[in-house]
Amino acid sequence: MATGVAAWLPFARAAAIGWMPVANCPMPVAPRDNSKRQDELIILNVSGRRFQTWRTTLDRYPDTLLGSSEKDFFYNEESKEYFFDRDPDAFRSILNFYRTGKLHYPRHECISAYDEELTFFGIIPEIIGDCCYEEYKDRKRENLERLQDDQEENKDMKLPNMTFRETMWRAFENPHTSTMALVFYYVTGFFIAISVITNVVETVPCGSTANQKDMPCGERYTVAFFCMDTACVMIFTVEYLMRLFAAPSRYRFMRSVMSIIDVVAILPYYIGLVMTNNEDVSGAFVTLRVFRVFRIFKFSRHSQGLRILGYTLKSCASELGFLLFSLTMAIIIFATVMFYAEKGSSSSKFTSIPASFWYTIVTMTTLGYGDMVPKTIAGKIFGSICSLSGVLVIALPVPVIVSNFSRIYHQNQRADKRRAQKKARLARIRISKSGSANAFMQSKRNGLLNELLELTATEEDEQKLTKSTSLIESQHHHLLHCLEKTTWEARNTAHEFVDEQMYEQNCLETALQTYTSRSPSVSSHDSSVGTCCGRRGKRNSPLPNASLPSAHPVPTHQSPLQELSALHIQCGDAPSHTASRSNLNLKSDNSSRINCKGGGRITTAIISLPTPPALTPDGDGLHGPPQRRPPPPPVLPATQSIQTTTSSAGVNIVKVSAL
Amino acid sequence: MKSRSQDQSLSDSRELDRSYDPLTGSLTDDSELATVSYRPEGLDRLVQQTSFNRKELQVLYRGFKNEFLIVCVSLTQECPSGVVNEETFKSIYSQFFPHGDSSMYAHFLFEAFDTHNNGSVSFEDFVLSLSIILRGSVTDKLNWAFNLYDLNKDGCITREEMTDIMNSIYDMMGKYTYPNMKDSAPKDHVDNFFQKMDKNNDGVVTIEEFLETCQKDENIMQSMHMFDHVI
Question: The whole model's pTM is what?
Answer without folding.
Answer: 0.48
